[in-house]
Amino acid sequence: MSDLAIAPVETAHVSAPSTSLPRLGMPAPRFEAVTTHGKVRLEDFQGTWLVLFSHPADFTPVCTTEFMAFAAIAPELRKRNVELLGLSIDSPTSHIAWVLNIKEKFGVDIPFPIIADLNKEIATLYGMISPGESKTETSRCVFVIDPNGIVRAMIYYPLTTGRNTDEIIRLIDALQTTDKHKVATPANWKPGEKVIVPPPATMEEVEARLKAGFECKDWYICKKSV
User: Fold this and answer.
1) Which among 63, 141, 216, 222 is annotated as catalytic?
2) Which of 26, 54, 111, 167 is an S-S bond match for 138, by CB 3.0 to 4.6 Å?
3) Catalytic status, residue 222
4) Which residues have a Cβ under 8 Å from the Cβ of 99 and sit 6 or more positions away?
5) Per-position b or e across 18-56, b if 16+ CB within 10 A of its CB
6) Tell me, what's the pLDDT at 206?
7) 108 pLDDT exceeds 60?
8) CATH 3.40.50.300 matches 182-226
9) Does 142 or 207 have the greater pLDDT score?
10) How far is CA 43 from the centre of its chain?
């Protein structure tokens, strides 16, 4: 037997076992993890928005197109104070090799860290594994976490379907607009379009909104520009 000790592979550490999956409007489960950029904790993103997303596996075709798409929107997300953080249950060396391969074959740099979740702790904590699809790969999940560490949106895609990164930018724009102006956004809303004024809760509010000059189709649905 060789007397050379093999260093153990570092894995993720979560703060406590989870009894339920993440819920909208609730604090995101805390974690500490090994990534391609070193160790990170959820607390490291305090004060910024975070898009935490999982992919099934390194060196797979759909995931490769997605990572290049995420790299393409990274500058736009930074303008919005948003950071990206990827995850799969592959090893750190697999992640690094894949990032280098994408650079070599496609000329694309991957600027964000990728979590190596070998023990599946974070994937389990966030409900990223769907046994109906795969027991060994994470689904294509997206979690939007706000600067206070609150889960604000969740999107799940099947293994066969690559994500639409333009929609992720639109979602961030909508969330930041609603936070800033205390409004809602209609279907297919894009920045620059009118937003929805929250519905009135009293007759007094109904009468006030009818006099406010909003674009109203009826008392309960009014829009305005912001």
Assistant:
1) 63
2) 54
3) no
4) 36, 110, 114
5) eeeebeeeeebbebbbbbbeeebebeebeeebbbbbbbb
6) 81
7) yes
8) no
9) 142
10) 15
Mean pLDDT of 116-143: 91
Q: Enter the pTM of the model.
A: 0.87
Look at residue 53 in the predicted model and tell me its pLDDT: 98
Assign domain 13-163 to its CATH architecture. 3-Layer(aba) Sandwich (3.40)
